[in-house]
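[recover] target loaded
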């Protein structure tokens, strides 16, 4: 009698375990499929219906091969052979086909099913749809390839300021090997940045979660960098572009501009640059010695109307016609009178040349008195009739 009671108890426990297992299988989001050693489907849970689109009635009794794309058919015999030898197949990533014909990426774990005597009678397969994960991985892989091939140096830091990504350009620009950076603290690797404005910008981007862009001389790279910082939930991404050559050009231009300005300040000439747009004539540059020579400020003189209205009435047509000559012949010299701010008129010799950018560059040489004849004015400035001045030669 006790033996019979024990059998009943064990049977009840076994049934309870089966019921619990069935509840787990039915509530799983993963596809859990049973099949014979010949590859015929014997069980099909609701998760399998969601993953593959077939109902249990449609799937049970069918070969597993109905889920295989043509190029993957050889996988099934290999899997069944391993199961027949009692082996387990873990996290096997492959491609399967849904009922609607759509291909999906899956990860499958297949285990042998044994009976009470230890005989292998089939296989249990747990399959998870990893299509979205694969898309993300491929997207990240493509992004990593793009970042690696960039001209910009790029690195990423986690919330604790440790390097988690470094592209190839970083190594050459920042003069550190990848293994010297990855996993190490940013402020340890680049201690030279501590106490500099660059430190302030990096910390601002990380702590305030704002994008920061700036240009700075880097004591690490030993050159000028354009730096753009982008915070994320995981840390900070930095993009660094070498702008040292550009900065050198800018400095050279500043020096040249300062030298030109100094030259113009000591020149007896007023330099104009005109831009022609359709029927409009637009002054773009007027040198600052305009005030000393004609009494007007640069802002007052920076319009075509100002020039036109201050021409002597008798000379206006000739002066305006000189612009047309410049446009057709490339260069022209015109003599006319202009009104000083004090009301007197000054004779000028206006040499114009079309520049490489199709603007008219004008140089106006001023005589000192309204009533001076042209010949005396030329002698005063040592200019021969129609001779190009050094300024005229350079305004290309």
């Amino acid at each position: 009698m006790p033996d019979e009671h024990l059998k009943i108890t064990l049977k009840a426990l076994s049934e309870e375990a089966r019921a619990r297992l069935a509840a787990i299988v039915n509530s799983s989001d993963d596809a859990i499929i049973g099949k014979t050693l010949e590859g015929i489907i014997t069980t099909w849970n609701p998760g399998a219906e969601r993953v593959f689109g077939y109902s249990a009635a449609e799937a049970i009794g069918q070969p597993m091969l109905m889920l295989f794309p043509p190029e993957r058919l050889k996988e099934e015999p290999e899997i069944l052979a391993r199961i027949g030898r009692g082996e387990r197949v873990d996290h096997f990533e492959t491609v399967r086909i849904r009922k609607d014909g759509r291909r999906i990426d899956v990860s499958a774990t297949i285990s042998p099913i044994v009976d009470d005597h230890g005989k292998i009678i089939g296989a249990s397969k747990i399959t998870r749809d990893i299509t979205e994960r694969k898309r993300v991985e491929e997207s990240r892989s493509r992004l990593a390839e793009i970042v690696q091939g960039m001209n910009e140096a790029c690195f990423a830091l986690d919330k604790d300021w440790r390097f988690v990504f470094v592209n190839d350009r970083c190594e050459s620009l920042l003069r550190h090997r990848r293994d010297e950076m990855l996993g190490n603290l940013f402020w340890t690797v680049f201690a030279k940045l501590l106490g500099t404005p660059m430190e302030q910008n990096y910390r601002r981007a990380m702590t305030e979660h704002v994008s920061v862009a700036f240009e700075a001389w880097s004591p690490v790279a030993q050159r000028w960098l354009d730096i753009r910082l982008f915070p994320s939930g995981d840390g900070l991404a930095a993009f660094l572009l070498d702008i040292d050559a550009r900065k050198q050009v800018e400095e050279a231009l500043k020096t040249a501009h300062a030298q030109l300005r100094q030259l113009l300040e000591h020149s007896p000439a007023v330099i104009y640059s005109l831009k022609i747009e359709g029927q409009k004539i637009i002054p773009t540059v007027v040198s600052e010695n305009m005030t000393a020579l004609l009494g007007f400020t640069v802002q007052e003189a920076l319009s075509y109307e100002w020039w036109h209205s201050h021409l002597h009435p008798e000379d206006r047509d000739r002066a305006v016609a000189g612009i047309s000559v410049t446009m057709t012949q490339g260069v022209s010299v015109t003599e006319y009178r202009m009104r000083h701010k004090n009301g007197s008129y000054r004779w000028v010799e206006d040499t114009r040349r079309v520049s490489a950018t199709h603007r008219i560059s004008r140089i106006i040489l001023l005589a000192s008195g309204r009533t001076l004849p042209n010949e005396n004015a030329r002698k005063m400035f040592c200019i021969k009739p129609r001779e190009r001045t050094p300024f005229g030669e350079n305004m290309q």
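[recover] notes: The mean pLDDT is 81.
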